[in-house]
Amino acid sequence: MKDTGFRNAMTWLHTWAGLLPGWVLFAIFVTGTASYFRPEITAWMQPEAPRRVSALVAGQHALAHLAEVAPDAPRWAISLPDARTSELKVFWQEPPARRFKSAELDPQGGAESTARKTYGGEFFYRFHFQLMLPHPWGRWIACFAAAFMLVALVSGVATHRRLLADMFLFRRTRDGRRPWLDFHNVTAVLALPFYVLIAYSALVVFTHMYMPWAGKALDARGEKPAKPAVTGAVAGGEGPTVDTVSVDEIFTTTAKLWGEERSVRRIDVTDRGTPGATITLTRADGGAVSLHAREVSKFSAVTGEPIEQAEKTGPGRAVGGWLYGFHLARFADPVLRTLFFVMGAMGTAMTGTGLALWTLKRREKLSSAGRGGRFGYWLVSRLNIAFVTGLPIACAAYFWANRLVPAGLAGRDQWEINAVLITWAVTALHAFVRPERAGWREQFAVGAVAFGGLPLLDLATGGRFDGLHAGFAAVFFALAAFCGLGARKLSKTSAA
Amino acid sequence: MTWLAIALDYAALLAFALGMEIHHRAILRRTPSAGRRLAWKTAGALLLVLALIAAIGTQGVAVGLVLWFVAWAGGGLVLTLLLAWRPRWCWLPAVALMLSGVVGGVCAAGV
Amino acid sequence: MPTASPTPSPYSRAARARPGYRRAVASRALAATAGGYALAALCAAAVALLSGAPRDEAIALAVLPALVAQIAAAVWAFWAASATRAWLGIAAPAAVFGVIIVWIQHFAA
Questions:
Q1: Looking at this predicted complex, what is its ipTM?
Q2: Could you give the C-alpha distances from A138 to A11, A198, B9, in angstroms and in order?
Q3: In chain B, how many domains are there?
Q4: Between A171 and A161, where is the model more confident?
Q5: Confidence of residue A304 (pLDDT cuts 50, 70, 90)
Q6: Cα separation, B23 vs B25, whole angstroms
Q7: How much is the pTM?
């Protein structure tokens, strides 16, 4: 046996670097995996909204709306529908406030959207890196969880004795830790490149918050960038409007040029009313991984002439843009996105089995030694239940609330989120008051019912017979089956 | 063609598994010689190269590279579960993926 | 693996029974987290200054090795034979980066 000291140290490190952020990582994996289908989740949650609408028509409505409600705003931004979403959102700035105001519009009629108010997939996306905590705490915790995950990956690889030889090995022995360890190893090793890239890129995405020191060092050398203040020549009432070009015209021309398949995804109009006014059109993603590879056309809003943008290139931006794009996976077609979803699910399984392994190992120690340390076991095992089954049940509650909270209720979107919080609190309480085995069994059973009922609820409350709803039904049934198997296994075998 | 790349990726993993004694015995019910194991491993490497070519040919270099290594994970998981429960059905996903590729290709050509 | 690494494990049952074990592990944990982050911060600043690239590019470039340094430092902190060596192994490269930063900020044109 070569170098057992190193391996033992790495095993110890893997245990703790994996356990401490384990619950946060599990939650990040669950919500992040769901986030791959962010627009699709929103579509599922707004079955009354139109599907596959024209970006060209929607953009013209949005521009008309902004001209009406915010003629004097220095900045406009429009997020347009594409192949995956029919959401049409307009944003505008009212100085001196830096924050944007926004409205959601009906992409076909142009009026304020009448679809039920919901955060849709945005909830999972935000949860994924903000953890429902006050800014910026969630982001910092998510970043540290990513750093811990990288340490756990490195130490895990160092710990694993037979990385390649056991790549496809799952041994179905009845007792003990073996099947858990095998599954942990298989899910970890098979998607290892994905985990490394996803955790590393998470930190790259948050460079400006997490690692601002390069920028600060450059600033100290006097290379401080000028930060533009929010000004509004028009809003302030000083001077005449100088924009002479119709945004509508430029948008329409470009949208026709790019075609319906990959049309304009975003319109930005900046410095309106000043001689420096610009119109920026961003094309829908496709064909390239890097976020910097987005096709962007920029025009002067005064002359209508295209503005040549200085190529900002370099190895750092190339790698960083690739990592950012990889993390978001917006470039992926449906098949590739499904593969990303599967890897996210494998990451969830890896984290979940990792957490379970800690308790299994500790239980062996406790029963053999019969000494203290029971509080740690109790805490970890109950937190495991509250996260591994409690959080998915809370996510199911989100979808249930989407259909059960009345469409016209004021603040209904917030009530959907309250449903998550309340359900999660109840499952956590349940986890801590019940014996461990009963806690798992009961929560698995609840999960099976909660997920299994969702496709039926969908059909009963406005769901359509199409690929999207069928896909959701398949995932919900799969989760229900998994929970059902768990509950059945736990009730069949005698208590350990 | 995306399906073809995924199918080749899966086939490569299956070939690597056949290059390992424990899985070879489970799938083909006989103990492989060292030469045979090496042959399977070589076939796996070749299939991986073919999968890479198919992935890049379909989606371009940037996205193709991602497709190539992203397909290992899901395919590997399916293979692992089949090896544990139904080792003799291991070849089924490869065929199913190939068929979806052919059907998809015919549909795309027909439309 | 380099043969210089310690054997036996600093986390074995025998090691846990020794006095000062908890303090040593706490010290390593601090080296891994605070020390690792400080090393990464200095690495990012030094690489950005050394690169001479435009601001955006320098920042994007510098974070890449800085993150690797952070993870390596965290792993090293628990690999090293003792807590003291863990700190030394992180402080030494950090000092190098520090010297580079001070040099460029104050002496280079």
A1: 0.94
A2: 29, 18, 38
A3: 1
A4: A171
A5: confident
A6: 5
A7: 0.93
